Amino acid sequence: xxxxxxxxxxxxxxxxxxxxxxxxxxxxxxxxxxxxxxxxxxxxxxxxxxxxxxxxxxxxxxxxxxxxxxxxxxxxxxxxxxxxxxxxxxxxxxxxxxxxxxxxxxxxxxxxxxxxxxxxxxxxxxxxxxxxxxxxxxxxxxxxxxxxxxxxxxxxxxxxxxxxxxxxxxxxxxxxxxxxxxxxxxxxxxxxxxxx
Length: 196
Known about the structure:
It is a single chain. The protein has helices at 40-50, 60-70, 107-116, 125-131, 166-178, 182-195; strands at residues 3-13, 20-27, 32-39, 74-84, 87-95, 100-105, 121-124, 133-134, 146-147, 153-154. With 196 residues, it is α+β, with helices and mostly antiparallel strands. It has two domains: 3-131, Bifunctional nuclease domain (Roll); 139-195, no CATH class. Helix 2 (60-70) crosses helix 3. It is globular and about 55 Å long. The relative contact order is 0.17.
């Protein structure tokens, strides 16, 4: 199966789930985005490595790197390998120079480790086709916004998306993508996938 290279585009806190973050991966040579909801600790581990912050004591992913280095293992690539019932799966592809091994991992942990080894992140076409969000270059009329209780602009993030028709969900998905609200887009995408 052909692999598609991904890049980390952003990490933002979830507005609907306390303690969750949206990790947005983008197709290296395309316009599709793959948002993955991750936990706070995994987001912190990714952010620390992206920002090149050195903690006082090694974090779990740093410990993994030290362990691998001491035993002469390298990480060759990270693959977002599967998607089952809205849950992403990943593989860490490692080598001791003679034998290549794949280790099952959560995508957030795999990416945090992959960043520390400066290795590429990949996925497969079927995963991007199912869960990817396509960015369009066509400008559209701005949708009306409302203010939330915190004063943030919102387009109804707390709504129950299950009540909408498929056509309306596709319209809301397009709107969420244009506003780069990948967390909402991921939820709408998941609801559309459940209906297919």
